[in-house]
């Protein structure tokens, strides 16, 4: 990490409590169409003791138009950024076209596991770099300061990860890990997340996440990932809130960029 980057990055953790464990709540699929529900979620989260989140913003959600062309949306994001929220690049289109001759595994991950959202699942290096750098530059030109890249559905090919690193982003996450792209260090930290596309998915998600939360409670970092549709299902949202409130007093809410910076400080990187 260069001194210029360090000077921009490390002060973000100045107020972090070094003796407490951390929780990162990430809000995925933030875009103009989801602004209203996202705003409701982050306001309620703030009332529940989570005053900051990592906001995963899609540059051009399903080709609906560039988010950065929406002045009110960008102004809203800048205000959140000034208040300590983190802006993260979340894919580019959040969409992957189906392809001929896909394997059973490809179909499982891109159609069943996620509904054609695995944009960076098997994207080659050049195209991944083009999309990531375009998003980075569009965000920066709008006064946003993304330091991380998270692929839709956490499906990130090795070539796309290399592209994110070469685009000089600081970190990426997958379902089961957080990776510092500068040092290459990977932290095995699984995220709690929900699938709400059907009743059986919601039921399984609730049962699984209740168990997963108990298993992960001893980890220094707890990750809870939420999506706009989660808010429209009261039983799902209630469990999310309950899990967060169960950490009250034992964890400090932070963002991925601040957590990565704290790990670097601890290791003297």
Can you walk through the features of this model?
It is globular and about 45 Å long. Strands 1, 2, 3, 8, 9 and 10 form a 6-stranded parallel β-sheet that branches. It has a 4-stranded mixed β-sheet with strand order 4-5-6-7, sandwiched between helices. Helix 5 (125-141) runs parallel beside helix 6 and helix 7 (199-216) packs parallel to helix 8 (234-245). It has 9 helices and 10 strands. The chain is an alpha/beta fold and 269 residues long. The model is unreliable at 1-19 (pLDDT under 50). The chain starts with a helix and ends with a helix. The longest helix is centred in the C-terminal third of the chain and has 18 residues, at 199-216.
- In the predicted model, the low-confidence regions spanning at least 5 consecutive residues are 1-19
The arrangement of helices and strands along the chain is HEHEHEHHEHEEEEHEHEH
Q: Find the structural class using helix and strand composition.
A: alpha/beta
Report the span from N to C terminus: 8 Å
Return the average pLDDT rounded to an integer: 89
Give Rg in angstroms.
18 Å
* Strand segment count: 10
Helix run count: 9
């Amino acid at each position: 990490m260069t001194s210029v980057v360090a000077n921009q990055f490390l002060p973000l953790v100045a107020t972090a409590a070094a003796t407490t464990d951390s929780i990162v709540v990430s809000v995925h699929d933030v875009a103009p169409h989801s602004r209203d529900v996202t705003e409701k979620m982050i306001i309620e989260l703030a009332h529940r003791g989570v005053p900051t989140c990592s906001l995963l913003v899609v540059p051009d959600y399903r080709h609906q138009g560039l988010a950065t062309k929406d002045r009110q949306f960008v102004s809203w994001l800048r205000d959140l950024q000034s208040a300590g929220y983190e802006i993260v690049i979340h894919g580019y289109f959040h969409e992957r076209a189906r392809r001929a001759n896909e394997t059973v595994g490809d179909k499982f991950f891109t159609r069943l596991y996620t509904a054609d959202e695995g944009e960076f699942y098997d994207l080659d290096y050049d195209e991944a770099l083009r999309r990531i750098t375009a998003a980075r530059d569009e965000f920066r030109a709008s006064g946003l300061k993304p330091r991380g890249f998270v692929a839709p559905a956490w499906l990130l090919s090795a070539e796309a990860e290399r592209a994110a690193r070469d685009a000089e982003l600081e970190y990426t996450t997958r379902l089961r890990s957080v990776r510092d792209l500068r040092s290459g260090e990977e932290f095995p930290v699984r995220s709690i997340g929900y699938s709400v596309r059907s009743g059986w998915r919601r039921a399984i998600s609730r049962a699984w996440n209740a168990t997963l939360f108990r298993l992960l409670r001893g980890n220094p970092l707890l990750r809870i990932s939420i999506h706009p549709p989660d808010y429209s299902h009261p039983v799902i949202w209630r469990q999310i809130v309950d899990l967060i409130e169960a950490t009250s007093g034992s964890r400090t809410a932070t963002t991925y960029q601040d957590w990565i910076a704290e790990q670097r400080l601890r290791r003297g990187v």
